[in-house]
Write a structure and sequence with these properties.
It is a single chain. Helices cover 19% and strands 31% of the residues. It has 10 helices and 30 strands. The strands form 6 sheets. It has a 7-stranded antiparallel beta sheet. Strands 24, 25, 26, 27, 28, 29 and 30 form a 7-stranded antiparallel beta sheet that branches. The two termini are 50 Å apart.
């Protein structure tokens, strides 16, 4: 499992439970059990269907053994002065343990265990990227004990997916993907994998939630399930009762690594485009819009006249990206992309990434309370985009000024060096924040630079005060502050009350 999210927690046998819990179970036995109408039917259908599905698909699920060869570190010989009484003793010892001075052989690091599943007759296997990691040897172990060496076709760290391929002399059992968008919360699902290295194992539960963001990557959209997923289940399939793969089991939240009923699977509909690209190109080729975004909260929605929080707020437009010539602007709020509604900012990167490179799409944005339609042809996302260098400029020195719970000063050579402000960032630097202020609640800190106030650039505290007074005169209760933070000059919008 994902080491950042996983641990192990085994269930306590009844005999070791605290007395008060055991007594509660004893008292329960004395109660009269009343079955609700229809309850018996639902309970019978679940286990009966699960057995049928498990029997059909079990042979397509494999255990993954991944290992890495690591060169043994050479130990230097001790340097003894010629004629030393110990010289012959040491030479005899090292020559006996390393005859002819041969170099040390690489040693095999202990294997990691995970799961995977076959998706076609050609021997394509899907698993998690973290299962194989930097492995040099990968073996797929089938239900009948057959072991086949696997080669990596492609892998993607951002979705934690990997595609492997094996060659088999006999036909392989395989499974197919289903439509994960049709899953309903409360629906039965089945997890099959290799928990704790025991081999093929089946567990069942329901879909607890959908579209979970566990902050493991930029495209988080996990299915949450209470089907037992333990260490070693990573990369295994999550089936619906039709026997279709609706998810790839990837992570759990647990104090110690065992299932406590909070497991996460990559949805099939998110995985399929990535898998197809890895099979075709050996790498991902994601769509790229060229904007930086953030969430829209209630205060920001009010300041932008959106009516309610929704969409993805553009905080920066890449000068070399597709969005720039298409007419996108900062403070636009993207509410629909290629016909798909953008409810929150995390929806947009995932949908854009799944859209083919070179496709022209229609995007709906809210701009100053009005709906605007833009058409853009997507570029290709570079996995490691380079930041352009910017020129620097100094401002005049002046005494700090306090307002809105902030102490402000001009950005000059001294304050730029003191707060490690990135070259090229211009504005007014925050030198202090009142602990109990709204600004502190919104995570503004000393060293942040106010670049704009409600779409107007500011260079001094006087500029900020003048802008706020003008907004008050227009009846505004809040203002959008465009702020650069940290050594990288990360840009974001923060809404502050001004009345």
């Amino acid at each position: 499992m994902n080491p950042a999210l996983a641990g192990v927690a085994e269930r306590t046998p009844l005999r070791t439970m605290p007395g008060r819990i055991a007594r509660a179970f004893g008292a329960l036995a004395l109660c009269v059990v009343v079955l609700l109408p229809g309850a018996g039917t639902a309970q019978a259908r679940g286990p009966e269907s699960i057995a049928d599905v498990a029997e059909r698909v079990m042979d397509a699920v494999v255990n993954i053994k991944a290992s890495q060869k690591v060169a043994q570190r050479a130990v230097p010989l001790p340097q003894l002065p010629p004629g030393s009484p110990f010289e012959d003793l040491f030479n005899d010892f090292f020559n006996r343990n390393n005859p002819q001075g041969r170099p040390q052989q690489p040693q095999q690091r202990s294997s990691s265990l995970g799961s995977g599943f076959v998706v076609d007759a050609q021997g394509t296997i899907i698993t998690n990227n973290h299962v194989i990691a930097e492995a040099t040897d990968i073996v797929a172990v089938f239900a009948d004990g057959t072991e086949l060496k696997a080669e990596v076709v492609g892998k993607d760290q951002k979705t934690d997916l990997a595609v492997l391929r094996v060659k088999s002399e006999k036909p392989l059992k395989f499974v197919k993907f289903g439509d994960s968008d049709r899953l309903r919360v409360g629906e039965w699902v089945i997890a099959i994998g290799n928990p704790f290295g025991f081999g093929g194992s089946v567990s069942a539960g329901i879909v607890s939630a959908k579209q979970r963001n566990i902050r493991s990557g930029p495209y988080d959209d996990f299915i949450q399930t209470d089907a037992a997923i333990n260490k070693g289940n990573s990369g295994g399939p999550l089936f619906n009762l039709d026997g279709d793969v609706v998810g790839i089991n990837t992570a759990i939240i647990s104090p110690t690594g065992g299932s406590i009923g909070i497991g996460f699977s990559v949805p099939a509909n998110l995985a399929i485009p990535v898998i197809e690209q890895l099979k075709q190109y050996g790498e991902t080729r994601r769509g790229w819009l060229g904007v930086a975004i953030q969430d829209v909260d209630e205060d920001t929605a009010d300041a932008l006249k959106l009516g309610r929080p929704r969409g993805a707020l553009i905080i920066n437009v890449d000068e070399k990206g597709p969005a720039k010539p298409a007419g996108f602007e900062r403070e636009d709020v993207i509410v629909k992309f290629d016909g798909k509604e953008i409810r929150r900012s995390s929806d947009l990167p995932r949908i854009v990434a799944q859209t083919p490179v070179g496709k022209e799409v229609e995007v709906v944005v809210m701009r100053q309370g009005r709906e605007v339609v833009r058409k853009v042809t997507l570029g290709r996302l570079e996995e490691q985009p380079q930041q352009a260098s910017l020129e620097t400029k100094d401002a005049q020195r002046a005494a700090p000024t306090a307002m809105l719970g902030l102490e402000l000063a001009p950005l000059n050579a001294e304050t730029r060096r003191r707060f490690n402000v990135k070259d090229g960032i211009e504005g007014v630097v925050v030198t202090k924040v009142e602990p109990d202020s709204v600004a502190a609640e919104r995570r503004i800190t000393a060293g942040d630079v106010i670049v704009e106030v409600q779409r107007e650039a500011v260079k001094t505290a006087a500029d900020i005060r003048k802008r706020i007074e003008a907004l008050k005169g227009q009846g505004q209760r809040r203002a959008l502050f465009y702020i650069a933070s940290g050594p990288q000059g990360t840009l974001r919008y923060v809404t502050l009350p001004i009345q």
